[in-house]
Amino acid sequence: MDFAVPALVAALVATLLSLTFLYNLLFHQGSNQQKPPEAGGAWPIIGHLHLLTGNRRPFKVLTEMADTYGPIFQLRLGAHKVLVVSDSQIAKECFTTNDRALASRPEALATEIMGYNYAMFGLAPYGQYWRHVRKVVVLELLSNRRLDALRRVWESGVKSFTQDIYRSWVRDKNNESEDVIKLDMTEWFGKLIMGVIMQMLFGQRYEEEGSRAAVTVRRFIDLLGASVVGDYLPWLRWLDIGGHEKAMKETVKEMDSLMDGWIQEHKRKRNTKSKEEEDFMDGLLSNFHGDGDDKDIPENFEADTIVKATCMGMLSAATDTMITTLTWALSLVLNNYSVLKNIQVELDIYVGKERRVNQFDLNKLTYLRAVVKETLRLYPPAPLLLPHESTDDCVVNGYNIRKGTRILVNVSKIHRDPEIWSDPNTFRPERFLMNEHKEIDVRGNHFELIPFGSGRRICPGVSLSLQVVELSLASLIHGFDLKRISDELIDMTESAGIVNVKATPLYVFLSPSLPSHLYN
Fold first, then answer.
1. Pairing mode of beta strands 406-409, 388-389
2. Which residue, 108, 149, 330, 413, is the most exposed by fewest CB within 10 angstroms?
3. Does the structure show a pLDDT above 60 at 382?
4. Is residue 270's pLDDT more than 90?
5. Whole-prediction pTM value?
6. What are phi and psi of 518, to 5 degrees?
């Protein structure tokens, strides 16, 4: 009897261990089939982080991984699991069926420090605060009513843009026989877009503080796209490896100084403006200082903080993407003179040489619009959409995705899918004029072309961006003869960063093509 109890206990323990082994074996085999495939090459602790650092663009590394592991796979970036999506149908599932579950943003040092502790709505987590601020942004800047009212701002900005280029030509041309000048169009596009957006948001002219704002936005965007060790390995944040946190704190001081100066100026003039004269910051101050319905705003955000964060978010999002798109579009056109000729013919037919291009001409310029679409396909402003984060467990493409997983959508890979796009790496605007792709737009409805994202988190400024880019490009090509500065094709190398910026400046030779009185 004394030996029976130990024997029984031993038998029970052995049985329990066997059952546990079998359960784990069966359970893990079943669950592994429901998990997305994980890319190879992970290291202990840091996971796949080392594969996405260095000189290579992350979206290109992820494109090569997709060729190996398929259109949906998983990475481990330090402490975080990341799902990479590189297929239009899977992206559609993310932004429709699972749109609510995947609508949040992950926490990051940049969002905490430069985003005013998650008050910048484009980077804020999904919830009541995000919904309220987005609603106000659309109402005060991006609704059809407001865009119609603000049309005069960008039409005036584009007119000044062509006038200033003409004055540069008059000043700098060498002689009558050699009547072209050389311009850096990247710089000119920067002044144009920064000036238009500053006027719309703050009622400020570029000449006043445009250069300072441009430098600050550039630093903000660069730091937003930086690989910060503390984001992936939080226990190493205190070391500030790479000095990113220090740089972010310096940048937010500059951002805050700019925004605070404009807020104080707007408050002083608040009762002296008519409704028609109000800009975006005026609208935000009215909404978040008690004149509007602010019941959804959490108590831990001050009204001025929300205004600063929202304005800085809109300034950075609008300027960098439009400057980038214009630069790529003109580069592609000048590398394909037949495309340039087709645009000129279309402008001659619908506009002629006796007046300027205006906003109402754009609906007739179908070839020019196809050029902009094709530019956004080949060189989307963000080749990887800003990361999403799952707030609930969900199923994507048959795989179980756990709450807290980060989602990266590789737009560049989707836009060059040979199953959808013939000759996917070729610049061919005509593809959008043929039946196959004629109905495809860039507004998040067709998932084979989503440069602005889709679903709840789609960029709310799609209409504004398209109108300003189309009018700017049309006005430049209508007003001037343009050509490359050499017989060699323009360098199309991309620089590192979250925005798909061209690595080298875009220099062109240029001369007027309209009667001189149209530049006055």
1. antiparallel
2. 149
3. yes
4. no
5. 0.91
6. -75, -10
Which residues make Cβ contacts (< 8 Å) with residue 5, sequence separation at least 6? Answer: none
The angle, 0 to 180 degrees and rounded to 10, between the axes of the packed helices 185-202 and 303-334 is 150
- Looking at the chain, the whole-number percentage of residues with pLDDT higher than 70 is 91
**Cβ neighbours of residue 478 closer than 8 Å, sequence gap 6 or more:** 344, 347, 351, 356, 357, 513, 514
- Degrees, nearest 5: CA angle 292-294-299: 145
Domains in the chain, start-ordered, CATH in brackets?
37-519 (1.10.630.10)
Residues with Cβ within 8 Å of 95's Cβ and at least 6 positions away in sequence, in order, are 102, 444, 447, 450, 453, 454, 455
Q: What pLDDT is recorded for position 290?
A: 62
Integer Cα distance of 87 and 447 in angstroms = 9
Look up residue 349 and give its two tokens: 């037919």
Question: Do 480 and 165 contact (CB within 8 A), yes or no?
Answer: yes
- How far is Cα 348 from Cα 354, in angstroms, rounded to an integer? 10
**Secondary structure of residue 410 in the 3-state scheme:** strand
Whole-angstrom Cα distance, residue 28 to residue 11? Answer: 26
φ/ψ of 38, rounded to 5, equals -100, 135
Least confident of 274-278, 309-313, 324-328: 274-278
The tokens 């890319």 sit on which residue? 39
Report the alpha-carbon distance of residue 141 to residue 398 in Å, rounded. 40
Write down the residue that tokens 């310096």 correspond to. Answer: 250
- Token output for 278: 């109000």
